[in-house]
Write a structure and sequence with these properties.
The structure holds 2 protein chains of 2 kinds.
Chain A lengths: L15 H23 L2 H23 L10 H11 L7 H16 L12 H12 L7 E4 L7 E4 L2 H7 L7 H6 L11 H13 L6 H16 L4 H6 L3 H7 L11 H21 L6 H18 L14
Antiparallel strand pairs in A: 1-2
Chain B lengths: L24 E3 L6 E4 L8 E3 L6 E2 L6 E3 L13 E10 L5 E9 L17 H10 L12 H4 L10 E5 L9 H24 L3 E7 L3 H13 L11 E6 L8 H9 L14 E5 H13 L5 E7 L7 E6 L4 H7 L7 E6 L6 E3 L12 E6 H4 L12 H5 L6 H9 L3 H6 L10 H5 L6 H24 L1
Parallel strand pairs in B: 1-13, 8-9, 8-11, 9-10, 12-16
Antiparallel strand pairs in B: 2-7, 3-5, 4-6, 6-7, 12-13, 14-15, 14-16
Classes of the chains: A mainly alpha, B alpha/beta.
The complex binds iron/sulfur cluster (2 copies).
């Protein structure tokens, strides 16, 4: 039997699944670092969240009677990112609510991977932070290496806002040895993951660079400590894993630049002028909503053609 | 996989699989029959001038052109005309074939003699009589390209030696062994059509060919037909689709063909190396286009190689004579893997613009399953025409003619790069083609509506 199909007859090896697998691998250093900073609670949250998300994905596809997509691994990525945005002492039920919001509400109710307009993990983080402000107000770290007991501490950005204590040293910021969400404190681990994604061609530099650059410049221009703002909070996590999310960020280079600069500006504004210490999630959600418009503004001109008609 | 920090590329890098490089073209003869289509070109073809039972000889015309674009077709073997048959193809068009049963004598027709050329008109007529069409794959009649309208003066001849499709090495072979003839074809064209400069574009995975072409050009520097600004060989980075006409022109001299336009709109004519090589030979011998060098390769082929086959030979017989297959074929492709056409019928004939037959085994022929677009932007980065393939795909699936036009669907050159890179394995090119058809149908119906 001869197959007859339209050209091309060659396909690249990269698949949606292989891309997601790369992102999961890129998060491994972060998961490992969480163990040293937050004790067993760190990796456990990651693993639970990934499993719960995969479960929600499989279930919702079954209930909606649509083809099963859990194998594309995107639910696992989302699960890991939801966990990454929570403190180590998050109760399990809040984690489950977070995964439900991310996978069922934001992703599957809008049609599944590719059709969600907002980043599931970012949206879940915002909903949880707003709904369970009391439960998620305290950030804990392990009291000693491999310790089971968690002690509550203020995050560097809280310290910066309130000015009550000394901010952690540069080294502690780099290694992530301070309070915060389990996936965002260790800059070194995040950089390792980000570098891996860059080297394997999964992401490019435009959005991360403009996002980080704008935030740092903005905080520096307003007289805040740019190094502290660079190295604490969700900035680096978001730069490599959230503003680079394919589905919810622009596809063209000018679009990526607009997205990065916009998200950086909003982050800086919220961090410096709002009551909240952190503004990364809101900034990204806002830019997610703007993305379809950015896509239209930045549509490339066909070679030899006149400008794409705008709708 | 490679780094992609700035995501600036507009090309892709499939494995080039040029396994047959350097293999000389082995002539295949002794076919049981040849079936020659009367139309092997873009535009209308010929009308039969032979009848069943006629004795024909190699090089004898079988059909006469029916329009200014048409070129004749010639007998590729000597023998008896067994039938003139008609077939309705899957796209609804009619195709006519002359089937010849060879007598095995390979007698050459007395009509085959070098053309006498005194004027440009003679030259254009001779090219047309030779049955020449663009041998790179487009099958655009060469005499039309060489005679652009008076309001479109051309100054640059671009020679396409890029051969960017994986597997195919027939052009490379022509450059390695026939560079002097390629240059002779260029000089003849310069003399009669008049170009200021000639740029030969070739990829850097064929340095031997590039050297041969350079040497051949240098050897004729003092020829009176040498163009004013010379003949240069430009080596380009190997990437797909460097050899796509519009891409090649931009890479070689920076000019951009306007949307919906032709290279002659910007003063350029593009010819494939094999076209010019044939042209030189024809001027010398008068033997029209009756054979073709093709690359036979792919995972199911027993002995990959280059072969010279008579026009109209059946694919099945070509494969058999060339060494056969080593496993069950899963897919047979006429042309390269990126733009070639999958055939459903092994009895189809070799035609003028065929440059390869690829046979994939069952595994390689398997079609990937499509999943949702994840908006990764890979197709955009791959598109040489700066389109948004995923948006065109969406518009085509939604039958949205307005959006298809807004997304410049007609600019697509169907290079296949977008489908190649898509991690969701979407059938982008297939849908883009449907989109083009939709737009054409819509345009035709408004035209009709306007008239009635
Ligand atoms: S390459 Fe495929 S998945 Fe990526 S944007 Fe294009 S169509 Fe979508
Ligand atoms: S849209 Fe057309 S021109 Fe662009 S990559 Fe796809 S097939 Fe090639």
């Amino acid at each position: 039997m001869l197959h007859v199909s339209a050209s091309p007859h060659l396909r690249d090896r990269v698949t949606t699944r292989s891309i997601m697998l790369h992102v999961i691998i890129a998060l491994v250093p972060v998961i490992i670092a969480s163990f040293f900073i937050f004790g067993l609670a760190g990796p456990m949250l990651f693993v639970f969240s990934a499993a719960i998300s995969a479960g929600f994905e499989a279930l919702s596809r079954m209930i909606m009677k649509r083809e099963q997509t859990v194998g594309d691994l995107s639910a696992i990525v989302t699960g890991l990112l939801v966990a990454a945005s929570l403190p180590a002492n998050t109760p399990l039920w809040i984690l489950i609510v977070g995964d439900f919001i991310a996978i069922v509400v934001v992703k599957q109710m809008f049609g599944g991977l590719g059709d969600n307009f907002a980043n599931p993990a970012v949206t879940a983080r915002i909903v949880l932070a707003v709904s369970f402000a009391g439960q998620l107000a305290s950030y804990s770290v392990a009291d000693k290496l491999l310790g089971i007991d968690l002690v509550t501490r203020a995050t560097p950005l809280m310290i910066a806002k309130e000015g009550s204590q000394a901010i952690p040293s540069f080294m502690d910021l780099l290694l992530g040895n301070h309070a915060g969400c389990i996936g965002e404190t260790s800059i070194a681990a995040l950089l390792a993951g980000g570098l891996f994604l860059l080297l394997t061609g999964i992401i490019d530099l435009w959005a991360p660079l403009t996002f980080i650059g704008t935030t740092v410049l903005f905080t520096w221009a307003t007289g805040a400590d740019p190094v502290l703002h660079l190295m604490s909070g969700a900035l680096i996590l978001a730069a490599f894993f959230m503003v680079t999310d394919y589905v919810t960020s622009p596809t063209t280079i000018p679009g990526k630049i607009i997205f990065g600069v916009g998200a950086g500006l909003i982050t800086g504004l919220l961090r410096i002028y709002s009551a909240m210490p952190e503004g990364v999630s809101f900034a990204i959600l806002f830019m997610n909503i703007l993305t379809p418009h950015i896509e239209r503004w930045t549509a490339p001109t066909a070679l030899g053609g006149v400008k794409h008609a705008k709708k | 996989m490679k780094m992609n920090l700035l995501a600036l590329s507009r090309s892709i890098h499939p494995k080039d699989n040029k396994n047959t490089v350097g293999m000389a073209a082995i002539p295949l003869t002794g076919f049981s029959k040849v079936t020659i289509p009367l139309n092997m070109q873009i535009g209308p073809g010929c009308e039969a001038i032979v009848a069943k039972g006629d004795q024909v000889e190699i090089g004898q015309p079988l059909g006469k052109p029916i329009g200014p674009w048409s070129v004749p077709v010639h007998a590729s073997v000597s023998g008896q005309v067994a039938s003139i048959s008609e077939e309705i193809l899957s796209d609804g068009s009619h195709a006519e074939y002359v089937t010849i049963i060879p007598d095995g004598l390979d007698t050459v027709s007395p009509l085959v003699k070098p053309p006498q050329i005194e004027t440009k008109e003679d030259f254009i007529k001779a090219i047309r009589d030779s049955g020449l069409v663009g041998l790179g794959g487009a099958a655009f009649p060469t005499h039309v390209k060489l005679d652009p309208p008076a309001d479109r003066p051309v100054d640059t001849l671009v020679v396409n030696a890029a051969e960017c499709e994986p597997y195919i090495t027939s052009d490379c072979l022509i450059c390695n062994n026939g560079a002097p003839e390629v240059v002779e074809g260029i000089l003849a064209t310069c003399k009669w059509v008049g170009f200021d400069r000639v740029i030969i574009g070739i990829e850097d995975n064929k340095m031997e060919s590039a050297k041969a072409l350079k040497a051949a050009a240098r050897a004729v520097k003092d020829d009176p037909r040498w163009p004013r600004d010379g003949i240069s060989v430009k080596v380009l980075k190997t990437a797909y689709p460097t050899g796509a006409e519009k891409v090649l022109i931009r890479l070689l001299n920076g000019r951009i063909v306007p949307e919906g336009g032709l290279p002659c709109d910007i003063g350029v004519v593009v010819h494939n190396v094999s076209t010019l090589h044939f042209l030189a030979r024809y001027l010398k011998t008068g033997m029209p286009l009756v054979t073709k060098v093709i690359t036979l390769d792919g995972s199911a082929v027993a002995t990959p190689g280059n072969f010279e086959v008579p026009m109209g030979a059946m694919i099945e017989e070509v494969i058999e004579k060339a060494g056969g297959t080593k496993t069950t074929p899963g897919k047979i492709i006429m042309g390269g893997p990126m733009m070639g056409i999958a055939v459903d019928d092994m009895t189809r004939p070799i035609v003028k613009h065929n440059n390869a037959i690829l046979i994939f085994d069952e595994k390689e022929a398997e079609l990937p399953e499509e999943s949702a677009c994840i908006l990764c932007g890979r197709c955009i980065r791959a598109c040489p025409m700066r389109l948004l393939p995923m948006s065109i795909d969406k518009a085509a699936r939604g039958l949205d003619v307005k959006e298809l036009n807004a997304r410049h669907v007609q600019t697509c050159i169907e290079c296949g790069s977008c489908s190649y890179v898509c991690p969701a394995k979407r059938y982008l090119v297939q849908n883009i083609r449907n989109g083009k058809a939709l737009v054409e149908a819509a345009a035709a119906s408004t035209e009709k509506g306007g008239k009635s």
